[in-house]
Write a structure and sequence with these properties.
Pfam families: CM_2, DAHP_synth_1. With about 350 residues, the protein is of the alpha/beta class. It folds into two domains: about 5-90, Chorismate mutase (Chorismate Mutase Domain, subunit A); about 105-350, Alpha-Beta Barrel (TIM Barrel), CATH 3.20.20.70. The chain has twelve helices and ten strands. The strands form two sheets. An eight-stranded parallel beta barrel has the order 3-4-5-6-7-8-9-10, surrounded by seven helices. The structure holds phosphoenolpyruvate and manganese (II) ion.
Length: about 350
């Protein structure tokens, strides 16, 4: 190497070191700004303003497009920092706010504790006979939580809308008779007081995940809430919906993944298994998986339930009906009692229950 080249090379190394020093200085200063501006951080508008300031004073020979590109790339990390600050906000649902697991105790059942929970029952409560038949079989198998819809969110107004309060009364009677914890969906704040008399856990369905008035209203009760993930909700939207309930004073909240909408047609929804470890990691709330609505079919329930529990879910929900073909909603995905017993045995044999 010629002496001249060597000299230039070491000059360049020196410039690089200075640049590195300056970049670190830039990072420290940007960090201070992010801290002062807290939630807002450095915005796109701030970046634009800085870049404009630089291009208007650019002495060259680097052209302005390159200056813009380089500085935009550089500032990108601070925009990301701003995002981190947002997720670092101490949300009440967040593990950063509360590191230990939230355990919800109802009667003798613990959600989010050391053992898994099975929630089973029909899609809709159709009659006392129907519910009692399922509940007795489930109780006999050792299941402690009974589900069943009385207020049904149906896609078509012509479909069965549920038995309403009558259904809730049946649920309470049956649950008292067999001794089970109950869970049923409410769709509006006006249903809270009545439902509170008959059920142990309020379910907020996928279609109402962002019904903010409902979230606020259940937040003002002390009653446990099972919040279902919205049809197309991101995990961020999901935990922020849960945050509404905690923010309004109720920390007895459980999250349930129930599949999301994708292009896939072989299942009713796509079960997002990654949601389980992410929600467990990000929040301190119990996390469950509804394998029936996630798949919309019976033949893969066991595999999906095993996957959910292996991924860290605190429990599973499954729809069980004495005679699924004759059911008034979700006929294709509900399993009968024999099928439930096989499913249940499969999970027990694998050591999940
Ligand atoms: C249900 O569990 O009864 C139900 C309607 O499910 P989702 O809200 O998840 O569709
Ligand atoms: Mn259903």
């Amino acid at each position: 190497m010629s002496e001249k080249l060597q000299q230039l090379q070491s000059q360049l190394n020196g410039i690089n070191r200075q640049l590195l020093h300056l970049l670190n200085e830039q990072a420290r200063t940007a960090d201070k700004i992010v801290r002062i501006k807290e939630n807002q951080g450095i915005t796109e508008a701030d970046v634009q303003q800085m870049v404009n300031g630089l291009t208007s004073q650019n002495p060259g020979p680097i052209d302005n497009d390159t200056v813009m590109y380089l500085f935009r790339e550089m500032f990108h990390i601070y925009l990301k920092k701003k995002k981190d600050v947002k997720t670092e906000q101490k949300l009440l649902v967040s593990r950063r706010h509360k590191s230990e697991d939230t355990i919800i105790r109802i009667k003798h059942t613990e959600f989010g504790g050391t053992s898994h929970v099975m929630i089973a029952g029909p899609c809709s409560i159709e009659s006392r006979d129907q519910l009692l038949t399922v509940a007795a079989a489930l109780k006999n198998a050792g299941v402690t939580v009974l589900r069943g819809g009385a207020f049904k969110p149906r896609t078509s107004p012509y479909d069965f809308q549920g038995l309403g309060v009558e259904g809730l009364k049946i649920m309470k009677e049956v649950a008292d008779e067999v001794g089970m914890v109950t869970i049923s969906e409410i769709m509006s704040p006006s249903q809270i007081d009545t439902a509170a008399r008959y059920v142990d856990i309020f379910q907020i369905g996928a279609r109402n995940m962002q019904n903010f008035d409902l979230l606020k209203a259940v937040g003002q009760t002390g009653q446990p809430v099972l919040l279902k993930r919205g049809l197309s909700a991101t995990l961020e939207e999901f935990i922020l919906a849960a945050e509404y309930i905690l923010y309004n004073g109720n920390d007895r909240v459980m999250l349930i993944e129930r599949g999301i909408r994708t292009f896939e047609k072989w299942t009713r929804n796509t079960l997002d298994i990654s949601a389980v470890p992410l929600l467990k990691q990000e929040t301190h709330l119990p996390v469950l998986v509804d394998v029936s609505h996630a798949t919309g079919r019976k033949d893969i329930l066991l595999s999906c339930a095993k996957a959910a529990l292996a991924a860290g879910a605190d429990g599973v929900m499954v729809e069980v009906h004495p005679n699924p073909q004759a059911s008034r909603s979700d006929a294709n995905q509900q399993i009968n009692i024999d099928e439930f017993n096989t499913f249940w045995k499969g999970l027990r044999d694998s050591g999940f229950f």
